Each structure stands twice: as structure tokens, then as C-alpha cells.
């Protein structure tokens, strides 16, 4: 699969600026894994207050970027219609290893672990320059609007 840009992502996800945290899909194996990219810029609105003079991407937003990546994998796997939305159902085993700062390119990887009774479970990892930044087990569920 060739990479997919922001237009494809915006067709799939309901998120918009400033909460759309995935810029590009680099690789996708539906039902298996998805690798995405987030370019972290000093222009991000959260850097004004987190932390002035020492900007650090909030861990909760790294987890949100991972959750959006898992949603994209679920959507690419299911080929769901446009009325389907994936909602965060849980985050387990979240760990943070290093800070993410302006100029970093955040690689976001989601691997599907299982899908039972409408609950999707993923292993998700974020890395910068090949170094693990954060990891979590993320659960989501699909709802038709």
C-alpha cells in the first residue's frame, strides 16, 4: 500500500484542527498494522502553555495520536461507511519513555491484537528517530451515528 496523505485521513477521521494529530499514513496492512506520521511543529497550540520556554508535547496528546492511528487501522480494516465513528473505550499499560519536542517526527504504529463483540484491542507505540517514546494498549468500539 502506498502512503496516504491528509486528504484521505480527513475523509476517514472526524477530527479537525487542532485535534487532528495524524498527518500521513506511511504503511497499512488492513487487519494487521498501520504506521502513521505526526510532524511536531512549534506552531502547535499546546506549546504556548506546555511548557513556556521548554516546549514538550503532552503525553495525553501522544496517546490521542495513537488512538487516532488505531481508529484509522480499524477503518481501513472494516471499510466502514461514513456514518461509523470509532470511540475510545480504554487505555491500558500506558508508558512514556522520553519527551517529544518541536521538530520531532512522531512515528505512530498500531497493531491489531483482537476484535471481540465490537471491542477492538490494539498495541500502539510512538517513536522518534527509532527510539520508543510511548506505548499503550488501546481499546475502541464502533458506533453508527
Question: Could you describe the largest sheet, including whether it forms a barrel?
Answer: 6 strands, antiparallel
Beta-strand percentage range = 35-45%
Q: What's the average pLDDT? A: 94
User: Roughly how many Å is the radius of gyration?
Assistant: 15 Å
Shape: globular
Helix content: 10-25%
- Derived structural class: alpha+beta
- Give the termini separation: 29 Å
Number of strand segments:
6
- Number of alpha- plus pi-helical segments: 2
Strand order of the largest sheet: 1-2-4-5-6-3
Low-confidence sequence ranges? none
Order of helices and strands: HEEHEEEE
Walk me through the structure.
- The chain contains two helices and six strands; from the N terminus they run αββαββββ.
- Strands 1-2-4-5-6-3 form a six-stranded antiparallel β-sheet, with helices on one face.
- The two termini are 29 Å apart.
- It has helices at residues 6-12, 59-78; strands spanning 24-29, 33-39, 84-96, 105-116, 119-128, 131-144.
- It is globular.
- The chain is of the alpha+beta class.
Amino acid at each position: 500500500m502506498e502512503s496516504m496523505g491528509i486528504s484521505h485521513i480527513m475523509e476517514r477521521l472526524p477530527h479537525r484542527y487542532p485535534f487532528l494529530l495524524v498527518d500521513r499514513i506511511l504503511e497499512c496492512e488492513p487487519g494487521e498494522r498501520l504506521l502513521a506520521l505526526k510532524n511536531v511543529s512549534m506552531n502547535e497550540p499546546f506549546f504556548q502553555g506546555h511548557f513556556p520556554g521548554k516546549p514538550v508535547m503532552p503525553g495525553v496528546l501522544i496517546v490521542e495520536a495513537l488512538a487516532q492511528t488505531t481508529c484509522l487501522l480499524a477503518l481501513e480494516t472494516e471499510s466502514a461507511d461514513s456514518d461509523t465513528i470509532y470511540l475510545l473505550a480504554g487505555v491500558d499499560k500506558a508508558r512514556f519513555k522520553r519527551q517529544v519536542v518541536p521538530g520531532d517526527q512522531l512515528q505512530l504504529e498500531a497493531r491489531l491484537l483482537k476484535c471481540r463483540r465490537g471491542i477492538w484491542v490494539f498495541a500502539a507505540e510512538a517513536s522518534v528517530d527509532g527510539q520508543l517514546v510511548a506505548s499503550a494498549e488501546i481499546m475502541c468500539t464502533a458506533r453508527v451515528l
